[in-house]
Amino acid sequence: MSKRANPMAVKSALTYDVSEAAKALGKSPATIRNWIKDGLPVMARQKPCLISGEAIRNYLRAKYRKAKSQLSHDELYCLSCRAGRKPVRLTVEVIPNNTKTTRLRGRCECCGAVSTRIISNSKAHAFAQTFDFKEGENRDA
Ligand SMILES: [Zn+2]
């Protein structure tokens, strides 16, 4: 799963141009421009457009909340569809992520791309009812 930007990496009282925002958030300027196309509000239409730190925070929080809430119990997040999708045959690889979480990885039923979901280890049993778990290797997609 691609890394999420940390909304707290920008200061709500400051304004940022695209390259400053990219740098603060560890993203590429192209990503910031995509966010603007996607609805991140800018303060002026002329160049360089400025974005308030507060707008960035609100945008990221809403975006991530949305991505999270889109997942049903039987879905992974498809990076290509950018949406919750069922994995093919409901089969997922189980990859230890850290001491508290596990990464599930499958193939998107719609497009075949890698889809992932981080679950808390305490919920692994519940997910095992839904998905067919198979052991995975800890490698990147
Ligand atoms: Zn997909």
UniProtKB/TrEMBL annotation:
Residues 16-63 form the Helix-turn-helix domain. This is Helix-turn-helix domain-containing protein. InterPro entries: DNA-bd_dom_put_sf, HTH_17, WH-like_DNA-bd_sf. Transmembrane segments: none annotated. SUPFAM superfamilies: Putative DNA-binding domain. It holds the Pfam family HTH_17. Signal peptide: none annotated. It comes from the Bacteria. It comes from Litoreibacter janthinus.
